[in-house]
């Protein structure tokens, strides 16, 4: 379906899992628990026409906190005073000819934890004023400090979207082939006493010239951000950012020990956006 479920404009936090499976030339797989943010960016900034004022949240936004979100961690790094990441996104969409994504923008991303962050991938769900999903921007970072975006035009929930791979992520994968994306989002539970705000699943599969190579997914149950859910995240995942970096290098070591071919990093693509 092309319409997102109708979640409230309250900032959300998701608790779930990251899964990764490499199919060849040596099979390698792992599953880790995780948490992430799902933020209504227009509501947070006070620019959504249906709210008019910014949404209040216990999440630390553009200020210090045990778990926090900072605009400068996304896009071109502009500060909140410069319009923040949302202004960067709107400019990107306009440059690409998308001028009708004026509804809510939901950002699925990792936060800063104890002041540190690394965001391998973030997802910007851009809606029209009528609530219809208009575009998804997949914002990818590698460990070399480089960033690239894949723009998916007129996507639909549950329907596979494709993009050419042009950006270096892992030295154990060539920059070739393409990605297959699938996004799913369920309605919030209507059962009495239920606390979840729905569920989200993102699947990203990488195919090279031979066929399927890597299968990944991140999924989770969404809840409204409260002081209690922030404490749950902090106590359950106190060093999540450092754990992400450590696991990247740990699994790279395991692939090297399995003698998976190592590829040198190519130059980053000249264009910042691929569609």
Structural write-up:
The protein has 275 residues and is α+β, with helices and mostly antiparallel strands. The protein has one domain. It is built from 4 helices and 14 strands. The longest helix is centred in the C-terminal third of the chain and has 18 residues, at 240-257. The two termini are 21 Å apart. Residues 4-8 and 48-53 have low confidence and may be disordered.
> What is the H-and-E element order?
EEHEEHEEEEEEEEEHHE
Please estimate the helix content.
Answer: 10-25%
Count every helix, treating DSSP H or I runs of 4 or more residues as helices: 4
Structural class: alpha+beta
Strand order of the largest sheet: 10-11-12-13-1-2-5-7-8-9-14
The general outline is globular
Through-space gap between termini? 21 Å
Largest sheet entry:
11 strands, mixed
The residue-averaged pLDDT reads: 89
The gyration radius over C-alpha positions equals: 18 Å
Overall tally of domains: 1
Q: How many strands in all?
A: 14
What ranges have pLDDT less than 50 throughout 5 or more consecutive residues? 4-8, 48-53
> What proportion strand?
35-45%
Supply database-style keywords.
275 residues, eleven-stranded mixed beta sheet, three-stranded mixed beta sheet, alpha+beta, 14 strands, globular
Any chance you could write out the topology, listing elements then pairs?
Blueprint: E1 12-22, E2 28-40, H1 41-45, E3 60-61, E4 67-69, H2 84-95, E5 105-109, E6 112-113, E7 121-127, E8 133-141, E9 147-153, E10 161-164, E11 178-185, E12 196-207, E13 212-224, H3 227-236, H4 240-257, E14 273-274
